[in-house]
Amino acid sequence: MPRWVGQSLKRREDPELLTGRGRYVADVVRPGMLHAAFVRSPFAHARIASIDVSVAAEVPGVRAVLTAADFPEGLGAQPCTHLFAGQHDTPYYALARDRVRYAGEPVAIVVADSPHLAEDGVEGVEVDWEPLGAVSSVRAALAGGAPLLYDDWRDNVAAVFEQDKGDVDGAFAAADVVVTERVHVQRQFGCSLETRGVVAEWDEFADQLTVWSSTQVLHILRDLLSDVLGLPEHRIRVIVPRIGGAFGAKFHFYPEETAVALAALATGRPVRWIEDRLESFVATVHAREQVIEATMAATRDGKITAVKADILGDMGAALHTVGYGPVWLTAVMMTNLYAIENIRARARAVVTNKTPLGSYRGWGQPQANFAVERTIDKLARELGIDGIELRRRNFIPPDAFPYQSLHHVFDSGRYAEALDKALERFDIEGWRRRQRELRQQGRYVGLGVSCYIENTALGPSRILNAGGVEQGGYDIARVRIEPGGEVTVYTGLCEMGQGFTNGLAQVCADYLGAHPDQITVVTGDTSSCPYTGYGTGASRSASVGGAALMKASAKLGEKVRRIAGHMLEAAAEDLVLEDGEVWVAGFPARRVSFAEIGRAAYLRADQLPEGEDPGLEEIGVFDPPQMAWPYGVNCVAVEVDPDTGEVRFLDYAYVHDSGTVLNPMIVEGQIHGGVAQGIGSALFEELRYDESGQPLFGSFMDYVLPTAMEIPRIRIDEQVTPSPIIPGGTKGVGEAGAIGSPAAVVAAVEDALSPFGVRIRETPVTPERILRLLSAARGAAATVGSAA
User: Fold this and answer.
1) Residue 493: its pLDDT value, please?
2) What is the mean pLDDT of the chain?
3) With 90 as the cut, is the pLDDT of residue 274 above it?
4) Cα–Cα distance between 209 and 222 in angstroms, integer?
5) Burial readout 250-275 (b: 16 or more C-beta within 10 A, e: otherwise)
6) How far apart are CA 113 and CA 212, in angstroms?
7) Helix or strand (DSSP H, E) at 110
8) Rounded alpha-carbon distances, angstroms, from residue 572 to 482, 561, 564, 603
9) How far apart are CA 193 and CA 125, in angstroms?
10) Nearest of 641, 185, 189 to residue 374 by alpha carbon
11) Rounded Cα distance, 291 and 322, in Å
């Protein structure tokens, strides 16, 4: 039985972080270090006629001003690692060469003695711009005669993905009821507490480039830098200090990382760039924005027989590191956790003159969940069936696993049980009674429920590679017992605030027989940490990284048993390993410590069994056979003030099934954070552009994040269905809270406003938007009354 896995142990990094002793990229100081700032395009679309850097170069303290013309002639384009079939190339570079395609695109880098002097240098760079026509929405980009972002394309569609399952046309022809819902999910971004940053240093004597970066993908960053710069991987070292949040935005390989590295090579001195908050709004990848039309067919008794989905993804100006992967994932997740046998999905990735789209917690899953759950609510109204009951009738039953969805194979699930548990936790009948009572008092209370499924344990590598992903789905872990008995775990995964290293220590403790306090987990250095195929993302740290560590720890435990058995003159199978000590079962006095075993393994070969190699170190590799699929339910109660549009939370209950949980406290923290971001998606956050492609944001006055004042107290419960395909049964939970929460919150707001006939098809549901919807609904009612 596991002793440490499943316990809510305190995070060991918290004292360091809470006392302000964490060391981030902005804290990296190197001898002779210079500072960088970027000249960025003020236009959404323009040609660069010329760039004059002469004035900037004369600014006191400025050491170099570089444009694309100063970079090596053979410099590669920024790579895209997700190469889906049929997609166009959208080449972009560390610095724009002859054309910019979004406001904020970097065109020059200024390197100076201080950040302020570098900014002074930026003011001195003169660019002769030739503005071009811009498109700032998929509607405008697809319109006839729209300006083209890439001259050799016939339109602004970068890629089209289509996939069918079953007899879709037959199911729709035979349907009793067909409903269509069209939703728009707004543009957001992973707005972490720490902005991006990079330090680059070239050592001409060691012939090595060292890069410190706030990234989720240290090995991938190294490899992509190698591709672009033409340097062998072994001459590039990437170090990742503490990361102040990432949420997927730091999964990407950015132009600034290449430009800062080239500036270090050009000047021969270390160069540091820290993104300021204004830059982050236009320079960090955006996410989410899609227009989805979903059509459902059903029988009169509520069996959903088919779904059709047409998805338009606003990719911004280029296909960034992960290509149009999030839009693709939306397309293949358009059945959610329901047994819908007939499905047709089409996704079009459309380029616009906006910051490129990329990764954000959940990838394309929140959009798919929102579209499916909102369409089910509409179908329930059309059929006159309670929405909760309609969901229950269409769940994939427990005996149907493994279940083939449109694209993926779901491993396990007990969806109806999770729904029942959530409804009990929420007290749905009690809330329905209170809702009726409060409406009689003139208070507009609404209830919302959504169910979700989450894609975790991303892999296997062969499937990813066959689909065009030039990254692996495996993980490698290395574990070593030191001569003094302490344990060191090395992982290529990145700790970015999610606390997964604590869970890894608990896994190692159980499978090696150590105490968690003996274990140090080392991350964030390509020179010491083993390669990870996909980096840190897709909720795979605990499932894939944990499984790799289980294998390594178990193998090392076998060697410990052999050595201890020799020292104790006992059979290895009769030994107990626990808390860093080994004893004979039934005879606890006959024991040796890991320290004694360590000294024997490293220093006293005469104490080892005949033929046993010195040392105590093993590696484990895990490439999942398929992905794992956690799931859950959100239940929400809100009150809406129809005079102000204010939404206030009254209750929030959440039930999840994430398989085996390593550390419940950390899992609950992940859910709280994900739900907070989902509430931001539903009610607050939006990156808006005007028709010319100019951003209408630049601070937190324009881009509103929810605070602790707006986030409700979430009551969390769990059920445990271990994954049958992941050693240990862990499924992952990193993105769960963000996936299903927007649909539940919006459903609750719509339910609160149902007496007015309001229907919500667009997020965020801000007070301004609520008041507009109410005004339109009242106007429509008045028109109908006048006609009558």
Assistant:
1) 96
2) 97
3) yes
4) 10
5) bbbbbbbbbbbbbbbbbbebbbbbbb
6) 19
7) strand 106-112
8) 21, 5, 8, 22
9) 30
10) 185
11) 20
Q: Which tokens hold the place of 44?
A: 């959404």
- pLDDT band at 781; cut points 50, 70, 90: low
8 A C-beta contact, residue 451 and residue 415: yes
Residue 785 has pLDDT above 60, yes or no: no
pTM across the whole model? 0.96
Residues pairing with 39 in the sheet: 108
Predicted pLDDT at 181:
98
Q: Closest by alpha carbon to 719, among 422, 376, 300?
A: 422
Average pLDDT of the segment spanning 220-230:
97
Name the DSSP class of 532.
B
Contact 180, 293 (CB under 8 A): yes
Residue 780's pLDDT is 76
Report CA-CA distances (Å) from 391 to 339, 375, 416, 536, 665: 10, 11, 9, 33, 30
Structure tokens, 63 = 């050491």
- Kindly give, in sequence order, each residue whose CB lies less than 8 Å from that of residue 729, ignoring residues fewer than 6 positions away: 659, 660, 720, 722, 723
pLDDT of residue 2: 78
Rounded CA-CA distance 632/427 in Å is 17
- Name every residue whose Cβ is closer than 8 Å to that of residue 295 and which is 6 or more positions away in sequence: 172, 178, 179, 180, 181, 307, 308, 309, 375
Q: Nearest Cα to 370, choosing from 252, 450, 269, 476? A: 450
For residues 487 and 632, the answer to whether their CB atoms sit within 8 Å is: no
d(CA 459, CA 544): 9
Per-residue H/E/C for 599-619: HHHHHCHHHCCCCCCCCCEEE
Render pLDDT for 610-630 as a digit per residue (tens, 0 to 9): 999 999 999 999 999 999 999
pLDDT confidence band for 85 (50 / 70 / 90):
confident
Helices (H), 70-157: 115-123, 138-142
CA 455 to chain centre: 11
The per-residue pLDDT for range 481-506, each reduced to its tens digit, is 999 999 999 999 999 999 999 999 99
Q: Where are the strands (E) in 470-533, listed by range?
A: 475-481, 487-491, 519-522
- 696-725 pLDDT, tens per residue? 999 999 999 999 999 999 999 999 999 999
CA distance 493 to 468: 22
Distance CA 724, CA 730 (A): 9
Strand partners, 525: 239
Q: What is the DSSP string of 664-733?
A: HHHHHHHHHHHHHHHHHHHHT----B-TTS-BS-SSTTTSPPP-TTTSPPPEEEE-----TTSTT-B---
3-state SS, residue 238: strand
Specify the residue for token string 């775990």.
Answer: 489
Cβ pair 771, 645 in contact under 8 A: yes
Q: Any idea how long the chain is?
A: 788
pLDDT, one tens digit per residue, over 25-56 is 999 999 999 999 999 999 999 999 999 999 99
